[in-house]
Amino acid sequence: MKDESTSGGGKRKRGAGAGKPGAVKAVSGKAVVARKRPVSAGPTASVEAAVAKITPARLAAFEILKLVGENKGHSDELLHSARVDGLSPEDRNLTTALVMGVLRWQIALDARVRGLLQRPEQRLAEPVAIALRMGAFQLLHLERIPAHAALSESVELCRAAGEPHATGMVNAVLRKLAAAQKPGVRIHESVAAFAERLGHPRWLVERWVAAYGRDAALKICEADQQEPVEGGMFVERGGDWPVMDDGSRLVGEIAAAAVPGAKRVWDCCAAPGGKTLILAKRLGDAEIVASDVSSKRLAQTGARLRRYAYAERVEFSVADAADAKGVEGEFDLILCDVPCSGTGTIAGNPEIRHRLKVDEFARQAERQRAILKGALKRLAPGGRLVYSTCSLEVEECEGVVDAVVGAGGVVRVPVDGVMAELAERGVLSGEMDSAVREGALRTLPGVHGCDGFYAVVLERE
C-alpha cells in the first residue's frame, strides 16, 4: 500500500483535539482511566500527556479500528465520518492507509507479532493488539514512515488507552520487528502459508482452492491486498456515466442487454443504485421501478439518482422482494442483485474476512432463495431475470439458482450471447471469455481485473 502522507509520521499537528481533554475520547469512545501500577513499576505519564504525543491521524485510525473490531461501524463509513473530515488532507490519507492496511494484513501482522512474544499463546487486550498491528503495519508496509514514529506512537497509544503495563512489551516487540529482515516470498508455499502471509483465514482460502484451484486462490488473495483501482473493462467512461466498480457495471450492462427492448423493469434490491443507473441509461423507453427493503438506503439511492437526468423517470418503492407486495404488475426484465457475504469485494471491504463465519453462507443462501422466488413471481411470461451476487461462494450462487430453476417454467439462458452482444456493441474494451463458466458470469479478483461477481440469466418460458 502506498503511503500518501507527507508528514512522514514525525510532525504532530494540533488540530483534531490533540492535547485537549476531548481527545482522550477519540481513543476509546469514553474517558479512559489508566490502570493502577505498583510503585516499584515507576512513574507513568498521564493519559492526556500520552495523547498529546500522538498524531491526529494515528488517533483517528486507532479509534476506527477499535470500532470496527467491536462491530460498531464499517471502515468505509467511519473513514468518511466527522472524526476524519476534521483532519488535514495529509492526515486523512495516513488515517485511511492505516485503517485499510491493518484490516487487510491483520492476520499476517498478528502472526509476525505472535512469533516475537515471550508467550506466543497469550491473549492480548484489544487496544494493545491494535497498537501492535498499527506499529507492525507501518514498519513492514509503509516505507515513508520513520521507524521511530511507528514505535513511539504505538507505545503512546497503549498508554493513552489505559494499558500502560503493556508499553514495555509493545516497544520490545516492535523493536525486534524493525530489526528483523522483512519476509520474502517462498519458492513454494502451502495453502496455509500463503493464506497467513496474505492475511486471509485459512478455511476461506481452502474453499477457494477447492472451487477455483490453487493458482486462482492465490491471485484472489493477492488482489484482496491491493487498493481497489478503476479498471479498463469499459470503453465508455466519464460524462454522465455513474462512477462505480467494473464488476457492478458489468452486471448492470448484462441485465440491460438481456432484454434490450424492455418496457417494465424492476431492480428489486436497488441500493446503492449504480446498477439502476445503468438500466436507466441503457433502457431509455422503459418504466423502471427501484425497490429496497431499507427505507434509509432507498432514500440515499434516490438522492444519488437525482443527480442524473436520465434517471428522473425511476420510481422508488420500499419493498421486501421476498414477498413482492410493495410493487404491482409484471415485469419483462428484473435485476435481482441480492445481499450476500461479499467475499468477492474483500479488497474494498477488508474487515469482511475477520467477521465472516462458515455458517454465514447457509444463512445468506436461505434469504437469497426467498428473494429470488419472490422476484420470479413478478416475471412476465417470456421475461428475463438476472440473478447476481458479489460472492465467491457456491452456496450463494450456483446453489441458490439450482434450487429454483425448473420450477414454474423457469430456465437458464447462457450468458455467452449477452456478453458477445456487449463486445459487438463496443461496450467492453477487452475479451471476457474466461469469465463465463457453465453459461454464467463468474469474475475472480486478480484474474479478471475486477471484484468477484456471479450473474446468471433466467427466463420464464
UniProtKB/TrEMBL annotation:
Keyword set, alphabetical order: Methyltransferase, Transferase
Group of enzyme by EC: transferase
Organism, as annotated: Tunturiibacter gelidiferens
Enzyme Commission number, as recorded: 2.1.1.176
UniProt name for this protein: 16S rRNA (Cytosine967-C5)-methyltransferase
